[in-house]
């Protein structure tokens, strides 16, 4: 998967997402990006719940985020997500929130680590996941 064929997840901005001025509160962009990553896994038939039962979990290890332009109440937007680097126990995703004209409102590089949920120690990402999300 590359930027050209990125996974796309539509979102609508609701009142609960905004401040008094109708602008999305900055922390809510993290929620939008988290949901889009979860839906990316689902789109490849990777169940995070099933992985958890196998003692495999993903946690955000690091994030760089740039806020370009505020999203507003009732905006219909798209989160574009694709893996940039896949390593033994981590995946770096690029995520971009765009409006209907393709303008970037927010962009993040997100590194997720694959860990054992009981010990929180790194564990290898199953090969089928690596191959699925690379498509």
Describe the structure concisely for a colleague:
The chain has helices at residues 28-43, 48-53, 127-134; strands at residues 7-12, 57-67, 76-86, 90-98, 104-115. The chain has 135 residues and is α+β, with helices and mostly antiparallel strands.
- Could you tell me the strand content as a percent range? 35-45%
Q: Tell me the distance between the termini.
A: 5 Å
Query: Globular, elongated, flat, extended or rod-shaped: what is the shape?
Result: globular
Decide which structural class fits the backbone: alpha+beta
- Can you tell me the residue ranges where pLDDT is under 50 for at least 5 consecutive residues? none
How are the strands of the largest sheet arranged? 1-3-4-5-2
Averaging pLDDT over every residue, what do you get?
95
- Largest sheet features: 5 strands, antiparallel
* Count of individual beta strands: 5
Radius of gyration: 15 Å
Number of helices: 3
Oligomer: single chain
